[in-house]
Structure formats: structure tokens, C-alpha cells
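Entry 14. Structure prediction run on the chain below.
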Amino acid sequence: MHNNSVGRENGSQLPRDGVEIRVTGLQKRFGDVKAVDGVDLEIKKGELFGLLGPNGAGKTTTINLITGLLRADGGNICVGGYNLPNEVAKARALIGFCPQEISSVDYLSGAENARLFGTLNGLQGPALQARITQLFAEMQLEEKARKRVSTYSGGMKRRLNLILAIIHDPAIVFLDEPTVGLDPQTRHVVWDYIRSFKEMGKTVVMTTHYIEEADDLCDRVGIIDQGRIIALGTPRELKEQLPATEEIEIDLPSDAQVSLDGFSSVDCVVDSKYDEVNSAVKVRTKQGIMRIGDLLALLPPGVQAEGIHVRDFNLEDLFIQLTGREIRAD
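Output returned:
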């Protein structure tokens, strides 16, 4: 990799535009496979950025390259004002990394694991103990702190994984699929904690294949597929690329005779079709949720809707439009 900027001996200095992480032309091959194929990213200080894509899309490899766990075959990486690989040790001092794999040691207690990771990151004494107490309380693991990790559930181990990643209070946090395998309640606990990072001014980069996770948490999202960023923007900006924002399904009696001709006269309608199997009219609209009354008025006299269902289109619909397949596919 070629480095174009110089890190500072007495601490990094961000560019004037506030970019905390800058990646250009990032490439990584494994044999004949291009795992990362020319990724460009700029992530600003304090931003919560998500890499969204299916398994095997290149999310984890991209994170491993930016954190210095892997060496790139090409491109430039600058993290917190430091260039990789030449200044990787300085960059890593700013980083907390929560991998998909469980980092803790099973035969140690949760607190002993945290003490080990804290010591490795330069913490000691009362300051380290205070940090451990704080994090175990925040992650709702106080009662398990002195128990061996081998007794933890999968969700508890995931939360401990997060504690170990941020024990040293890093400025930049990388989370690789942080809620995979968690039950909905525990997932929301972790979501709330990730939101708190942003409130503290931390820069957060997370990978996920959960659509709602990217939509709810992230300031901006990069949709990645086959090692390339195929869409980039805020969740709202990305969804605005879709021709329709929702599908309105109107359930009808099985013997109803309906013409679709009139639906196109409603200005918010993108297209419509009749689902014979379910006896329903499906209308795709652009911000048409307030126009349902206009759509119902187009039904023939005497035909009453038996039900109305609205499905908002999301980032997965955009991924399907761009690639022709679902984001959850392996």
C-alpha cells in the first residue's frame, strides 16, 4: 500500500473535513477470489456507519483490513490520522474491535477476562476495576461477573465480547455482526448500548446482514456485495432510490371482479397487479399511505375490501433491485 499522509508522533490529527477513517481502492484476494475489490470509504468522526450485505459479501474482510488484522493487496488506509500498515500500532491504540468469534476464555470468569483485556490495553488498578464495574452494569451482567464464562449463555458471551472490545474506552469501535444469534430482547439491549457510543462521540463501524439493524442504528450505510460497495448513503437516501416506498395490499372477496385501469390515475401509484391466488389487489405507491381512501374508491360498486395491509419497502428491496437476490442469502 502507498501512504499519502503522515501520522504524528504526539497523537493523530484528523483532516479538516473531520474524516476519521479514509479508505481508497482497497483490495484483497484469497487465491482467485476477490474478497474486497476496490472499496472506497470515508467515515467521519462520531458517525455510526454500517456495512450491510449477505454472508460472503466482503464485510468482515473489509473490517479486518481497516483494523490491521489483515494486510491489503492494494489501496490506502488511514485511521485516526495514521496510515496502515506503517503506523498500525498507533492506529490500533485508538481502536476497539468486537469480532464475530467469541474472544473470552471459558475457564476464567467474566471479570477476569475483562481484567486481562484491560491490562493488555494499558489499564490497571482502581481505574481498571471501576471500568469493569461500570461495563458489567451497563451490559446487565453484574450478577455473572464472577462466574466462569463456560456457564454463560450465548447472549451473555456476546455482551461480554463487547465489554472486552471497549474496556479501554477506544475512540473508534468496530463491531463485526455484534448481534448475530441474539434473541430480540438481548439484541435491543445491545442496540441501545451501540447508540450510546454515538452519544459519547465515538466513531462506530459495524457490519450486519440484519436490515432493521442498519436501518434503525446507522447514520449511513454502505451496501456491499462481492467485495464492492454498490450503494452508499443514509438509510432514507438509499430507500429513496426505490421507485416505490410501500406496497398496499387490498384483500377482496374471492368472486370480486376488479379492473386495474383506474389505479394508474392516482398520482402516487407506481404500478398495480391482481393476485388471483389470494384475491387481492397489490398496489405499489410512492408515499401513498395517505391515499388509501382514493384507492378504495376505485373498487367497483358493491365490492368491499376485506382487509388492508401495508408493507414499507426497506434496504433489502434495494439490494434485490441492485443484485436480483435477497440480502440474507449465503
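The chain is about 30% helix and 25% strand.
Filed with the rest of this week's runs.
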